[in-house]
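Can anyone check this?
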Amino acid sequence: MSSIQENQEKQTDEQAHQAYEQEARDYVDKIAPGIYNYEYENGRRYHSNDQGSYWLPNDEPEIHRLNQQHHCFTLLKGGKLHLAPLPSTPLRILDIGTGTGIWCVQMAELYPTSEIIGIDISPIKSDNKPSNVTFQVEDAEKPWSFPDDHFDFVHMSLMHGSVADWLALVQKIKRHLKLSGVLEMQEMATAEVHSDDDTVKPEQAYARWCVYMKEAAAKRGRPVNIGPYLISYLNGAHFTNMNESVYKLYLKPYPEDEFGKMIGAYTLVNVLSGIEGFTTRLFTSVLGWKLEEVTRFLDECKKDLTDSTVHSYIKLHVAYGTKEGLTTIIEQQESRSDKLD
């Protein structure tokens, strides 16, 4: 084969990947105007205080990416902001790692008589927030400014890579919940990629990215592959009425059904927009890679992600549990008494 033919085939292959990515972006723009509407910047802004706590950018592109991701996950869960059953009475609600604050704002519309507080290690900017929403800068791993037995519902989403001791954090949340209060957590199996037709192979760049991410997280002492362990944390903290739902998060728009295609398009655009921010800081500062090595590897990952023949997905886990209420405690005491008799 001549060099001219090789160059032509290479260009054709690259054009196919670029066209696939553009198709996903166009699809997202079509179904959700305005959600993906920002320009890229050369530099990235990161949280400036404790680097060990938050590892992702917090600049405008990341804010838009997080809002788009929230929209995608809400669609995946059938339009629900929470899966745990909640009473209709006024509630005191806490959102840990609130990010852009979009979940709090939407919850305020659903529960207008409730008090909703969002905390994050970075300052939260949200224009025109409802009067029943408050944002404050607070580190979830450090002592809280809230009293014990204070909240009816605590929501925590996508804190992977930001927490050193998950069980300790879940136990702390339980202390701050009222009796019969509910904790709901949402996390991905970030370091696992799957396919149902064996098109995902361990030698592929994105599959290797998952392995490297897991390695970097382990070295930092802040794991990223949290989703599969949510139930075990709830169980370890002795929550009751536990429940878990697991969703397929398609990484590209390959499903034949319109809903699956929509989720895949959202996710592909989201990952392609964020993978540089996910990766660069960890790979350079923790794994010791050179920036040029990271850039070349990410190009390989993007090529994998836009390969329409690889039908990959990751899993989103949502789990909730209840802090035992007074009725439960009485029942347990009566049960123990019966056994003694």
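Reply from J.R.: I decoded it. The first helix runs from residue 3 to 31.
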